[in-house]
Amino acid sequence: MVIFMSRYFGVDYYPEHWPRERWEEDARLMEKMGIGLVRMAEFAWAQLEPAAGVYDFDWLDEAIAILARHNIRTILGTPTAAPPAWLIQMYPESLPMDKSGVRQSFGGRHHCCHSNPALRRRVRLLVTAMAKHYGHCKDVIGWQIDNELGNSHDELCFCPSCTDAFQTWLTNKYGDIQTLNAAWGTAFWSQKYDDFSQIPAPMLNVTAHNPSLLLDWRRFCSDLIVHFQHAQAEILREHCHDQFLTHNMMGYADKVNYFHLARDLDFVSQDQYPYYQEDGKTFRNMENLSSALELIRGTKQKNFWVMEQQAGPAGWQCFGPTPAPGQLYLWTCHSIAHGADTVLWFRWRTCTFGTEQYWHGILPHNGTPGRRYRELQRAISDLTPVMEKIQGLGSGAEAAILYSYDQNGALKIQPCHPSLEYRQQVQILYGGLYRRNVMVDFIPESVDFTSYKLLIAPLLTLVTPELCDRLKDYVHEGGTLLLTARSGVHDETGKCISDGDLPHGLSSLCGLIVEDYSTIYDGPVSINWTDRGIFHGSYFCDRIVPDGCRTLACYDNGPFAQTPALTMNTFGKGCVFYLGTFLEQTGSDILAEILLAASGVESVGDAPDGVELCMRIGPDGDYIFVLNHTKHTVPYTPPADWTPLLHAESGLAPYGVHIYLRPHDVSF
Ligand code: GAL
Ligand code: ZN
Q: For residue 642, which of 169, 392, 459, 522 sits 20 to 30 Å off, Cα-Cα?
């Protein structure tokens, strides 16, 4: 029998959940399936350090060795997401404190305060011991630091240690208290501080906290987590020279600024669960999942790994439907199409105890290979030759979305309208491009965006003069930019800007003034898009007074009927569109069409509804993924010059995938 090992596919494995006698059999079954990688130990603190300072690595050594004999290499997680009971008993103050000052209890995971000095010391000692022990182990190829940092907390921690750390962070940021008072506008409600030691963490109070304080608190909490990871990264870098560092992120999770978290890592990883149950909701929307992968790729502007790819029905108390035949295969391809260079499935075998006994792995509870095993075995053998060719190949995107944790944070603090959400608006604007099969990069405001033909900056609420200048230069040099309502409202501390006109710093670029605005509560307003039909604007509308721009569409009703809703201004060699409201899907589809025409951005190709086309560009051609997200067979015939690489039968099977190589134009 040919055994097909792949270094691009792996599983998350928990030897500590199974008797030792089973480990050999697991390794054999993995090898037979083609698995070449496992991630282990990311929650095994209690097993690795059963008592303070007593380390036990024997069991893990043995698991690594067994797997290695089956040609499987290991990624180790630092187990700092699950501090053991002895540690909490020794240092009760390392438990996180909630908003009302109540300590959370042990149990669950991430039950720790990330600034607590005792916890930090224990983490340092453990990670150092692990790094020294495994730094030279040839079977360990890399590290995942902690697990899903920023998970498991609604808010982080409001304890005295975190409050102290916040005050120090503010001192470093503002230097003196007068500067902070001015930056936050503490003249309001007598909130002037005489000293940094008076500044509270935003705990439960009788009414709302100052939004500028809340914005800085969000930034501080993110920095705290970034620093928590950094402290581990430093130790691992010192002792582990040929091993990579990564972290498993959670798409749009927003407690940590992933652009910052990514800096200490060689590459980032994503945990990708297309279909699961949580809090009574079933999550499934391929468009959102696609955009989450673009964001993850954007955190370092390079390809990533999927460290946890869904492998079965998933949920804790309730669980989502069983993935239909072909769906696990499709989801794996979907991650790869968006830039995953390696995929590990979560998890190998379904656990028989604990919170996740219904979060199904490849193997069912009884450990016998079944349909999921066979489907993913086929995925490994089909996809490995493709993976070989596409390692490191990028998206070739000509369009980008400016994504910002600060804009998201500011809008969460003051959404203006209760339903106005940053992430949702990002996804609506992304959706128009997605449905036209356009590759999109998500980039932070700090990177050079001049190489993109089209730049979408949703809800650019906080602005600096520097950012406004860069946007002007971008358009001036030929870029196409889209701005929306609520642009240029606040400075970076969250105070409203008062000199000049809305959108502040951007009004000359847009060739307009926003003279007035209104939230919308009585159903959406209609927008008459001459010759394209009627669309809807929700939540908010601007009263736009053109000052050089061209009006493309007007409100039909609402508070500003017959005034512009969408405008376009030519500026230098480029043009800028300003949308005075927030669109729904059909509107965003039409807007996408207009933006693509104006910018010259091309789509990967045409596809029927429910089928996604995605590409990764290589030196000799584009690797095109055709992904059928529907449960139906869909007719699909690719252009004649595309070379089939995988499943090129005519028509796409339910949840089927085709892969093609499209040659680049060769010009002489
Ligand atoms: C992820 C996490 C895993 C596991 C999985 C299923 O978020 O990293 O450890 O908990 O979800 O719940
Ligand atoms: Zn704390």
A: 392
Query: For this structure, is 148 an active site residue?
Result: yes
The pLDDT tens digits for 36-90 are: 999 999 999 999 999 999 999 999 999 999 999 999 999 999 999 999 999 999 9
Protein residue whose Cα sits closest to atom 9 of ligand 1: 147
Chain segment 256-303, per-residue pLDDT in tens: 999 999 999 999 999 999 987 776 666 667 888 999 999 999 999 999
- Cβ neighbours for 125, distance < 8 A, ≥ 6 positions apart: 53
Q: Name residues of the chain where pLDDT drops below 70.
A: 1-5, 153-154, 279-284, 648, 666-668
| Residues facing residue 103 across a β-bridge | 97
Q: Which residues pair with 537 in a beta bridge?
A: 525, 583
Phi-psi region of 651 (alpha: psi -120 to 50; beta: other; left: phi over 0): left
Phi-psi region of 356 (alpha: psi -120 to 50; beta: other; left: phi over 0): alpha
Q: Report how many helices (DSSP H) and strands (DSSP E) the chain contains, helices first.
A: 17, 28
**308 alpha carbon to ligand 2 midpoint, in Å?**
29
What is d(CA 275, CA 292) in angstroms, rounded to the nearest whole number?
14
From the CB of 264, is ligand 1 less than 6 Å away? no
CA end-to-end span of the chain, whole Å? 48
592: left (phi over 0), alpha (psi -120 to 50) or beta: alpha
